Amino acid sequence: MAKILEEEAEDEAEDLSSSCGCFFCAMKQPDARLRRASVAAFFRELPYSEDDDGGAVAAVWRAAMDAPDDPELPSLGAIRCMSLLLARAVDDAAWRCRGQNASVPYYAAHVLGTYTIRSSAHAELAVAAGAVRPLLAVLGGAMTWVERRAAARALGHLASYDATFPAVARHAAEAVPLAVRAASTCVSDVYTNYVALALSKRPKYQRELLKRGLGGGVGAEDRKAEEWASQLQCWSLYFLSCLASRDPSSHVLICEDPVFLRELCRMWGGLANGDSPAGVGLLRLLCRSSVGRGAITACPDALSGLCDLARSSDDWQYMAIDCLLLLLDDRDTWHDVADATAPCLIDLAELRRLGPRRRLGDAITSALLLDDEDDHGHEPELGAGAREAIASLRKEKIERKEKEEAMSSDELLERKLLAKEKKRQGNDIFWHGEVDRAIELYTEALELCPLSGRRERLVLHSNRAQCWLARREVDAAASDATRALSLARPANTHARSLWRRAQAYDMKGGMARESLLDCLAFAGAWLDSRKHGRQRAAARGANLKKLPYCVARMIGKQMSVTGLFAGMSADGGNVGRDNRMPRCSDGDDGGDEDEKDVDGDDCDHDESEEEFYETELRFCRSGTGLPIMAEETWSSRLARRKKT
User: Fold this and answer.
1) CA dihedral 456, 460, 465, 468 (to 10 degrees)
2) What whole-number distance in Å separates Cα of residue 33 and Cα of residue 430?
3) Strand, coil or helix: 619
4) What residues are paired with 547 via a beta bridge?
5) pLDDT for 571
6) Which of 102, 123, 273, 639 has the smallest number of CB atoms closer than 10 Å to its CB?
């Protein structure tokens, strides 16, 4: 038996010596035992070779992407090999510039991130191979933004496992500032060092990486660079979130930079990385510590950003509300937070279910009225806006509720009928151009309408929002539209209110993201409504072929100004120079009613959606820069929203 084993070992050595030793030949070995031996030998030798002319590291990356959970290559030394290659690239700039070695660090870091995405065992192999130190060096700027993107991803995965977190946390004092800087500067870095450069000045290997499997010329290449910049930011924030969730002491380091906190809520995954909570995810973790709550409360821009996100149709709206509730639950921060956010939060007091959260409106009411339970005379008095907001909330949610509970059913019915008549009068008055009087009538109707009349109150708030738009009072319009959307079931699904709030945010300026998301939600609601087979719009002979021009143009405008690089281009990336969208008049191709449209319904049913009913989504392209977007764009976003 010993002789047989000795002969097999000699045969194996002979077969290995006859092989060229490259990864491709090793993987083609038909004998599994010989293949494993050849691959293991290849991984042992590769870190010490002079160049990677055969593209072996890229081949390992493709194998990892195809089967990230397959333990074969990691067990044969792939992870150790990639760690050594990355360390060599960091230490030896001359080697990195030789042959095809320029792309080796990118692929090596990507292999580490891919194999550790779901496997704690693979993460332990990476830590044992010493991957943390070179990954931190890459994140810190030892190489370009392309390699930093892959390094941030790998570090986030290593920090997400109990077994490997201590190895990463050991370097927290160094890692946190590096990740903060990467998240803060990645956009300007990518724009300055790639997008703004002439094609001849762009690094060749970076162009090859970005153009891999990509068509569409320079425009597509720039869009890919923007997507990668967003991913670098999101993965840097994810890395910070992993540290913050497991080590509260890291909150001190994260909160040291007030500029970072100020910008954090505006960092979002965009449409390309919508699955990432990005900045608001990290903010919610910071709100779980007294250090984080104190730092966020002391940053007015952070509170303002949370309020804007809380009153949007973003998929992560509930996280912003979570942050504000955590801040209000702390007696040390309640006063400052309530003073800054109460006028916005009361618009959300009717929310029930949002994402995974239940009874959010009740939680908001309890948090804002928390001051009623205790005597805090030593604290400074709230500002006039906050006092008025909390007083109106108390009147609506407590005093009025108790009053209506004591009424008979006949009294409630009478009030409901009176409210309906006031609404009818308001609609007529509005159409005659008496906007101020219409506002008064809608307000009277809201005071009469029982709290149980959710659908009726939704329409009244939405109609009053249209009146505020006509007067160009954008804050009041956004407030009423938000209240209407909070009353909708599910939340944020009343199409007209979405469109009205989108216009209000557009008029206000500086809220292009919120306006865009409302436009997308409106398009999603329209797309969803076609599936119900409504026929009344067809009976009216409405033009059903196009989304209204003003909606398409609004989406085009807001997409251009919400791009990561929009603020860095010469013209700011604006579509047109006007600050407001044109009216949807009867003469437009979309067949929408004009700006003086008000809801006449007493329920959630929205006839405006019927006017856009068609079998195929298509944008009209009547203006400069309007996007042509496939139905799948809206379908995928709508599917994501339905999951929550």
Assistant:
1) 180
2) 83
3) strand
4) 619
5) 42
6) 639
CA distance 88 to 93: 9
Could you give the CA distance from residue 357 to residue 279 in angstroms, rounded to a whole number?
19
User: What are 477's two structure tokens?
Assistant: 């319009």
CA-nearest of 273, 216, 110, 173 to 640 is 273
Instruction: Using alpha carbons, select from 451, 508, 470, 471 the residue that is nearest to residue 598.
Output: 470
Phi/psi at 362 (5° precision):
-65, -40
Is residue 203 within 8 Å of residue 263, measured between CB atoms? Answer: no
State CA 193 to chain mean position distance.
Answer: 25
**Distance of alpha carbon 436 from alpha carbon 285, whole angstroms:** 45
Cα 523–Cα 528–Cα 534 angle in degrees, nearest 5: 110
Asked if 187 contacts 229 with a C-beta cutoff of 8 angstroms, the reply is yes
Phi-psi region of 592 (alpha: psi -120 to 50; beta: other; left: phi over 0): beta
552 contacts 620 by C-beta, under 8 angstroms:
yes
- Of 296, 309, 288, the C-alpha closest to 354 is 309
Distances, alpha carbon 518 to alpha carbons 353, 514, 521, 523, in Å: 18, 6, 5, 9
d(CA 347, CA 484): 9
Q: How far apart are CA 644 and CA 250, in angstroms?
A: 30
Q: What's the whole-number average pLDDT of the chain?
A: 83
DSSP code string of 90-103: HH-HHHHTSTTGGG
Bond prior to 490 in cis (omega within 30° of 0): yes
Angle of CA points 439, 443, 444, to nearest 5°: 120
- Tell me phi and psi for residue 596, to 5 degrees: -85, 30
Handedness of CA 482, 487, 493, 495 (dihedral sign): negative
> What is the pLDDT, as a whole number, of residue 588?
31
Kindly state the average pLDDT of the residues 250-273. Answer: 89
pLDDT digits (tens, 9 = 90+) for 561-616: 888 888 775 444 333 333 333 333 323 332 233 334 455 543 344 433 333 333 23
- With a pLDDT cut of 90, the percent of the chain lying above it is 66
Spatial contact of 617 and 637, defined as CB atoms under 8 Å apart = no
**CB 186, CB 148: distance < 8 Å:** yes
Indicate the length of the chain as a whole number: 644
Residue 356, class by beta-carbon neighbours within 10 Å (0-12 exposed, 13-18 middle, 19+ buried)? Answer: exposed
- Residue 24 corresponds to which tokens in the numbers above? 């491709």
- pLDDT tens-digit series, residues 385-443: 999 999 999 999 999 999 999 999 999 999 999 999 999 999 999 999 999 999 999 99
Read off the DSSP letter of residue 628: P
With contact defined as beta carbons under 8 Å apart, do 127 and 164 qualify?
yes
